[in-house]
Amino acid sequence: MLNSLFAAFLLIFSSVAYASDFICEIESGNSLTLLKPIANLDPYETTQVDLSGNFRFSVQHLLGAGKLKTFVYHYAKDRYVLIHAAEYRIEGNDCSQYEQGLGLNKVYSAELEREFSFQCKSICR
Predict the structure, then answer these.
(1) Strand 39-40 and strand 55-62: pairing?
(2) pTM of the full predicted structure?
(3) CA distance 77 to 125
(4) What is the DSSP letter of 93?
(5) To 5 degrees, how large is the angle CA 87–CA 89–CA 92?
(6) Most buried by CB count within 10 Å: which residue of 11, 36, 84, 113?
(7) Residue 69's beta-bridge partner residues?
(8) Over the stretch 4-31, which tens digit does the pLDDT of each residue have?
(9) What digits encode the pLDDT tens for the residues 39-71?
């Protein structure tokens, strides 16, 4: 019971401290996909999407750690293989500093002979 109350307190406090949400723009082939990561405290919880061209994009918005983590996988031999991982520090509560994005990432899978690009940016409320 005490753990549940503490977790609820942290979630409320973190929502106040980090008053921004994020959205990731993902381009694979000729399609653009938008993915909004769910902000949480669980380091094992991710938001993900499987895309054409056998790519998977996964993102974590970790409130307690103040981080946004991204992962790109490609499908090979009946499983997804990690080909790119990035971690961004989300500091303070100034949402506007991330509105232009955290940088454009381009990932190439030699096995698939395809490129995948994404950029995550804040959505100020």
Answers:
(1) parallel
(2) 0.78
(3) 43
(4) S
(5) 160
(6) 84
(7) 60, 87
(8) 444 444 444 444 444 478 999 999 888 8
(9) 899 989 999 999 887 889 999 999 888 899 999
